[in-house]
Amino acid sequence: MEELSHFINGALVKGTSGNFADVFNPATGEVQAKVPLASEAEINAAIAAAAEAQVAWGATNPQRRARVMMAFGHLINKNMEHLAEAVSREHGKTLADGRGDVQRGLEVIEVCMGAPTLLKGEFTDDGGPGIDLYSMRQPLGVVAGITPFNFPAMIPLWKMGPALASGNAMILKPSERCPSTSLMLAELLKEAGLPDGVLQVINGDKGAVDAILDNETVQAVGFVGSTPIAQYIYGRAANNGKRAQCFGGAKNHMIIMPDADMDKAADALVGAGFGAAGERCMAISVAVPVGETTADALVERLIPRIENLKVGPYTAGDDVDFGPVITKASQDRINGLVESGVEQGADLVVDGRGFSLQGYENGYFVGPSFFDRVTPEMDIYKEEIFGPVLSQVRTETYEEALKLTMDNQYGNGTAIFTADGDTARDFANRVNVGMVGINFPIPVPLSYHTFGGWKKSAFGDLNQYGPDAFRFYTKTKTVTARWFSGIKEGGEFAFKAMD
Q1: Quick check: 237 and 464 in contact, CB under 8 A?
Q2: Any residues with CB less than 8 A from the CB of 242 and at least 6 apart, and which?
Q3: How many whole angstroms separate alpha carbon 397 and alpha carbon 91?
Q4: SS3 173
Q5: Which are the catalytic amino acids?
Q6: Is the pTM of this model over 0.85?
Q7: Are residues 288 and 416 in the same domain?
Q8: I need a labelling partner for 495 at 20 to 30 A (CA). Which of 123, 262, 277, 414 fits?
Q9: 18 with 93, same domain?
Q10: Is 74 in the same domain as 204?
């Protein structure tokens, strides 16, 4: 069995704690590798080494750091298939989805190639008699990224790209369920010219997370995962004086107006609801049709589309629509929520219970399920299922549909399908959700914008990637300068305006 490593000071290093976690193949249920879980001593040693390496890296001019990002982007492209296969092998998503995972991370690295323009300060000349003011963006020092299982390439790249391009050293703790991709990316960064120690990849569990949060050298923490863990990390980081951006759960609604193209809406719902087995924080999990006619038309179109979805391992070919979920515990939890939906009175129109794939009976596969006539009191509505389950909540009016979306505790993403521009503009302006799609089901912004939810989907003031990431990973220093040349003599004791 393969024994994975940490990546410390530019090399793959075996763990010394003696503790390991199993890395499963979700399609078969078999253990395919074991990953070391770092001790607090290992974490602290890696952070100390990163702090040493950061001094020279932070002093490297932004253009030279950007050249490392350029070489890194080239190597990601060159190794695209290798990386995508690693994503699919440990996560279970299809190869096409694995490529998309890598590609959306690569797009952030491409923005980081232009980091010098995002790191510029501001300048005011003659702010007062002979006085100039200017600001500088400087790296924080050592920062940390704690990333989830569902995007083993994309989210580590979202974290490491802006952090490193800004001159920081990074401690990356990937999910212990899908660690290999981060280790591969670290090796590619070394090949691209990143100095040893500037990126440390440390595998671990909650103990490793707490060690990172409590280490005084770490100045900022970025996290993506569930809302309870996001709240925990945000609170502990803030209590220890660190910056934190923590992104949590979601319950994304898609409103379908009576004037929408029903076939396009149904296609969008199936792709956004069942892609990656629903294990996306931007998945559409709630369809909200306006009017009974709209709801009935959707049901008529959704049933055959969902029933015809092909579920299987990533090795089964390009026509597989989605693969297994990540663990047996996830499989059991999703099936339990489907059972609760039936018990609480929802109409299970497409029943994914009891799904079994010949030859992969021990895999963590979950069949696609579709509920109609769901109400907000039901568990399948209240909880983030994170599986291949779509719920339909019927509403009578646009205002009722909008209120349903706005009253939900989560505010990650939402969408509306309509042919009416006024309705779309009203929805975009009023809805209290961070990312909005208009006739677009999964509105993940392009990499030169910024990604972030509202309400209990995000904790912290700044979003991921785009301009916000460079603000998060730098601190602003403002300098007020005056060069004496006979303008004024003597001390000043009053705090006065620069007139």
Answers
A1: no
A2: 213, 218, 219, 220, 221
A3: 40
A4: strand
A5: 281
A6: yes
A7: yes
A8: 123
A9: yes
A10: yes
